[in-house]
Each structure stands twice: as C-alpha cells, then as structure tokens.
Amino acid sequence: MEHAVAATPAWAVLAYLAAGVLFILALRGLSSPESSQAGNRNGMIGMALAVGTTLALHPTGLLLIIGAIAIGGGIGWVIAQRIQMTAMPELVAGFHSLVGMAAVLVGCAAYLNPGAFGITDATGAILAVSRVEMGLGVAIGAITFSGSIIAFLKLSGRMSGSPILLPGRHIINLGVLAGIIVLTGVFAFDAAAGMGQGPLMWIILGLSFIIGVTLIIPIGGADMPVVISMLNSYSGWAAAAMGFTLQNTAMIITGALVGSSGAILSYIMCKAMNRSFISVIAGGFGADSGGAGAAKGDGVQKPFKAGSADDAAFIMQNAETVIIVPGYGMAVSQAQHALREMGDLLRKEGVSVKYAIHPVAGRMPGHMNVLLAEANVPYDEVFELDDINSEFGQCDVAFVIGANDVTNPLAKTDKTSPIYGMPILDVEKAKTVLFIKRSMGGVGYAGVDNPVFYADNTMMLLADAKKMVENIVKALNGGGH
Amino acid sequence: MDFLSILSIFVLAVFVGYYVVWSVTPALHTPLMAVTNAISSVIIVGALIAAAAGAITDGGGLSQWLGLLGVVLASVNIFGGFAVTRRMLAMYKKKEKKPAASK
Predict the structure, then answer these.
(1) Which of B44, B48, B57 sits opposite A115 (nearest CB)?
(2) Are A245 and A138 in contact (CB under 8 A)?
(3) Which of A268, A202, A204, A258 has the alpha carbon at shortest distance from A231?
(4) Contact criterion met (CB below 8 Å) for A326 and A398
(5) What is the rounded radius of gyration, in angstroms, for the C-alpha atoms of chain B?
(6) Measured between alpha carbons, how far is B36 from A364 in angstroms, rounded to an integer?
(7) Which one of A264, A374, B6, B22 has the minimum C-beta count within 10 Å?
C-alpha cells in the first residue's frame, strides 16, 4: 500500500461542486410543471459532469467501465420506456433498491482496496473516521436495498400487501439496530478491521440486510406512500455517507438533498393520514383481522341507494359542477383514460369538471397526478385537498372513483375511529355523491365503514371502476342529444 | 478536505434541500421521487473509482469487480431514472387556451 493518492485537483473539486449545484437546480425546477423539464436536463448535465470528471481523474480500465455503463444504461433506458404509469410505485421502489446495493458495493470495494480511495493512514490502515462513515454507509445502503425489495414485492403484488407480523418484532428490530450501531463503533477501533480483515464489516452488512426486511414486512399496502418516501430518504443518506468516505462534494450535496426530500415527503404523507411516523414504522395498521377499529356496526346490511351508469350520466349531464375524486381503485382498474373522456364529454355539455386529489390517494406521493397527466388531463384542472375542499359545499356532484378512507367523514367525528383526525375530502357536502365501488362487501384499507355509502344524497355505482366509467361515457354519447 | 469542511457542506446542503423540496408542487411529487432517485445514483462516482483503481493496483481484483457491478446498477438508475422522469414530465400539460367556449 505504498502508492500515495494525490489530492483531488482544484478543477475536479469545482466540477463536482458544479454537479451538486446542477442537482439542486434539478429539484428547484419541479416547483412548477413549466420549469420541470429544464430542471430534469440540469440533473442530466450534472450527472454527466460528475461521471466525466471521475473518468478523467481515473482513466484506467475504461473499456470495462464503458461496457458496464452501456449494459446498465441500456437496461435502465428500456425499462423507462416500457413501464406503465400505474406501475410507477414499484418501479421507484425497485430503483431505490439499486441505489442501496450500489452503496453497499462501493463500501465493500473501499474496504477491500482503501488505498485507491485515499482513506488510509501512513501505516496503510483505514482511518477510524472513514471506517465509521463506511460502516454507516454500508448499513444504510443494505437497509435501503432489502427494504426496497420488500416494498417492490408488495407494491407489484408479488407479495401480499397486508402486514406480516412477526412475534416480538419490535424487540428484534431494536436489538438488531442496537447491534449495528455498537458493531460500527467497534469496527472503527478494531485494529484488524483497519487492515481490511476480520468479520465485523460482514456482520454489520448481514444484520443490515436482515433489518431492512423485518422493518418493512409489517407495514401494510396503504402505508406504502410513507415507506417509499422513507426509503427514498435512506438512499440519499447512504449516498451522503459514501460521499463523506470519498470526500466528494457532489455526493454529499446530492445525498443531503435526496435525504431531506424523502424525509419531507414522509412527513407530508404522515400528516395527511394524521399518523405519527413511529406508528407507521411500527406497522400492523390495516391488518386483515381489522385490529383496533374493525367495521363497527351491527352486522346488518344498512340500506343504500344503488344506481346505474345511465342514472349517473343523467345526473352529471344536468349538473353545473362536478368534482372527481380519484383513488387507488382508479389506478388498479386503469380507469384514468375513460375518466378523462367522461370529463371531456361533460365539459362539452357545459358542465364544469375539476379533480380533487388527497395527498395519500394511491401508493406513492403524487401517484394520482401522474395518472391523470398520462390521460391528458390538464394539470390546472387538478387540485390539492386544501385548495378544493371548500368547493364541495357548492358543487352538484362529487364523483368518487376508487377512493374510500380519504372521503370518510368519521375521521372528523368519531374519536374512536382509527382514521380519526385524518384530513378528508368533504364529498358528503356535495348535492349528490356518486360513489364507484366494486361491491358493498369490502371496507377501506383502514377497515372502517364509510357513512357516505348510506347517505340519502349518495348513489352507489357498484362495478369495476373502468367498466362503470366506460358505460357512463356510452350513456353520455348516446343519451345526450 | 478535512472532516469539518465536509460536514459544513453537508449541513448546509440539508438546509438547501429542505427549502427546495418544500417548494416542489405536490402534483410533481412522483417525478420528484424519480429524479431524486436518479441523482442519488451519483454514488456511481465511488463505483467508478473502485473499478478504475482495480485495473492498476495489485490485489484490487475483487474490488474492481464490485466497482464494475456498482457501475452497472447505478447506470440502470441514472438512465432509467432520468428517462422515466422526462417521460412523466412531458405528460403534464396546461389547459389548451383555444376554445374559450364553456363558461
């Protein structure tokens, strides 16, 4: 380990800094759809700059490296072109797992060949501070990897979305977490570990893979917006920890940006469900058994009004304002295109049509917005909860498609309800509520019955969301004039 | 760079991230996740160093292959993440102004 690593030249330090600034601009661009595409281009330029600078500093083994970039880039490109918009949550989860694994690989490579990364002291031992950073980076990377794999399996339906509750899981998780922290401390001061020997690194890695799994399996499907944001955050912190090891500004800035981005999204999602972050992470919400607040009621089917597509078409044609409330059910049945067609037909008849989005509708932040954008719904017709909620009182029809808990007024009145305190869309205030639901049997994710189903001003449209909307479109085309 | 300078950059970047991300419109939260995912693949820098160094130092063989695998994974993310973000952003359109018919 003789070779001294030259300090990074000034131009390269500046280039990495510029890459970091370009990444900041990439996120800044997302403040409005108009500036977002330019923002994304800034991100790409920043990445090209960071990669180009690194290759210029280390111009060896280029053939293999370019081959590796071509293979990975080709796979990524094809996936990005082919993926369906409804599958975006599992795609993002899958991509997070790759960042996690890449962080693990970089950490292991640095551990095995520390001289190349310039993190050794005069005796060739890895600096203690680098070992802490490396241990943390590898641990966070491994948690991101295995956690994201579980999230991916749940979101893509390859694994049941309902919580899997291990006995004593809190004790297990806290024990493993404490083990990782203690071992990372020992790792920093262990002489063998400094020389790249001994099992400590691998034990930390193994424990981290395990806790990633045990942390995510007890968390249910509809809490996924929090989970996916949290894993987003972790992937950032992993990159930042590696940035500390490599003393690389681009990595540190990016890691900090992504880390805080994911943390903010987790916070917004938790707030939109009126749940604490801890309670989401503790998991178990929405277990099959119903748990705390299973559908209260006397077991007797309450009376409700059912309607047909023709009824719905007639009511909406004669309305002045219609607010459409989409939820996860719309994504599942891919109803967004038919829905936009319905909106267009209504608008032709002079009806004002708007869309109302609850922050946790769907399986990831902004999920509904992307699907509506895909169906060519202009984004200035799509409104967030706070901006539109006051309008339900004056609107003629609230058209709920595949959403349930986010419209449940018990969240405002029933203190014992598991969803009490969650901000909801006040659909019950509309003159008429049209509620598409597959059947009266199932209750929402939280296992709470929704009084809107049985209200006098509600008409239930019991069918698959897409079929029902298509039939309404037919009725609008045929019956109108 | 010493540890404290790096820490300073990190702390300031966390604050920059905090304010920038709060200004992101909720309608673009999914593209935000996709693009943050793409940029966090800047971890490829570490993988590139390992892959390049392995080619010249003895005993860096395993480290080189780990680095190359890291380059592959990060590249999937970089190309996939930016491309899918671009695809999504291209879908966000404003209302066409031409027909001032209704209302």
Answers:
(1) B57
(2) no
(3) A258
(4) no
(5) 21
(6) 14
(7) B22
- The DSSP H or E segment spanning A434 is strand A432-437
pLDDT of A2 reads 35
The reported pLDDT for the residue numbered A447 is: 66
**CA A133 to CA B3: how far, in whole Å?**
11
**Phi (first) and psi of residue A432, to 5 degrees:** -130, 140
Q: Which of A21, A84, A98, A336 to mutate to test the interface with B (most CBs of B within 10 A)?
A: A98
* The model scores a pTM over 0.90: no
DSSP E strand stretches across A287-404:
321-326, 352-357, 382-384, 397-401
By C-alpha distance, which of A306, A326, A467 is closest to A403? Answer: A326
This complex has an ipTM of 0.91
The conformational region for residue A247 under phi > 0 = left, psi -120 to 50 = alpha, else beta, is left
Chain A residues with CB-CB distance to B88 below 8 A: 85, 88, 370, 373
Chain A: closest CA distance from residue B98 (Å): 14
Q: Contacts of residue B62 in chain A, CB cutoff 8 Å?
A: 112
pLDDT in tens, A315-355: 999 999 999 999 988 988 899 999 999 999 999 999 999 99
Identify the closest residue of chain B to A267 by CA–CA distance: B22
> How do residues A32-85 score in pLDDT, each as one tens digit?
999 999 999 999 999 999 999 999 999 888 999 999 999 999 999 999 999 998
Instruction: Tell me whether residues A369 and B52 touch, CB distance under 8 A.
Output: no
The neighbouring-strand residues paired with A462 are A437
Q: Which residues of B touch A79 (CB under 8 A)?
A: 76, 80, 84
Separate counts of helices (H) and strands (E) for chain B? 4, 0
Q: Which of B21, B31, B53 sits opposite A116 (nearest CB)?
A: B53
When CB atoms are compared, the residue of A30, A47, A110 closest to B42 is: A47
pLDDT digits 0-9 by tens, A203-255: 999 999 999 999 898 888 778 888 999 999 999 999 999 999 888 999 999 99
